[in-house]
Design goal:
By secondary structure, this protein is mainly alpha-helical. It has five helices and no strands.
Amino acid sequence: GKTTRIWKGFPIVYILVIFLLLPLLLFGLSSLFEQDSKGYTVLGAFLCIILGALIIWTIYRWHKGGLKESVMTSFEKRQKRKVANENLPEGMDYVKAE
């Protein structure tokens, strides 16, 4: 809710990531373990380790590394730019196009 108030485009990104990108990623990862090849199983295990490390690193950066503040600042700037662009007078269409 708080992020949606800061940036109105967040729900679309959230839905695409949670309901499209993440399931496809996990499906592809799990399909590596269902193959009859040891190479695919090793690749799947390696990718699981990388994915786990990436998740842990992101959580650490979010809470301790300032990632949360930089993301929120970026969302605020994006929303302010959108509002300013929408409030331009109609005669400034060439500026909106940029």
